Amino acid sequence: MVKQYNWYPAEDKKRQVRTKKRTATKLRNGISAGSVLILTSGRYRGRRVVFLKQLESGLLLVSGPFKVNGVPLKRVNQVYTITTSTKVSTAGVDVSKINDALFKDKSARSKGRDIFNEKEKKTVSAERKSAQKAVDDAILKNLAADKTPFLKEYIRARFSLSKNDRVHTMKF
Fold first, then answer.
1. Which region among 3-7, 21-25, 81-85, 167-171 has the lowest average model confidence (pLDDT)?
2. From 84, 127, 133, 139, which residue has the greatest number of CB atoms within 10 Å?
3. Contact 61, 49 (CB under 8 A)
4. What is the set of domains in the chain, with CATH numbers?
């Protein structure tokens, strides 16, 4: 049975297109400055990183630190992280000047790739290197001062699951 309507709009009347409003991504519960996260995808999957802040784009700013486990300052979507209960002090870590513009590629790629002339090495900007060094020094100082046993070794170790691991019973 089809419901009958007494009024129908004119055929030439256009419907307004629905648009989604972009809102800032809400930070997941349990994630705060100094939280240790596990990356679940990308080049550094399985590595533990320290969360520093949420950027304007909604992505998370994380660091290994680079000297401990080789993970540089990086932007990560929070969907690809596992939150752990471990925390590291972020006292003295200044990330106020770090934003999304720091991670944009400034090389001229408007022409496209030149597959016959790809001998050029990608270089990291001096600004990014100095930011990495400043953040790493502060975190390493906090790791050394922390009383938690084997915290540095915990961050250095990779995370993986094997066949008989029961993820639903694990506490991260």
1. 3-7
2. 139
3. no
4. 31-91+125-159 (2.30.30.30)
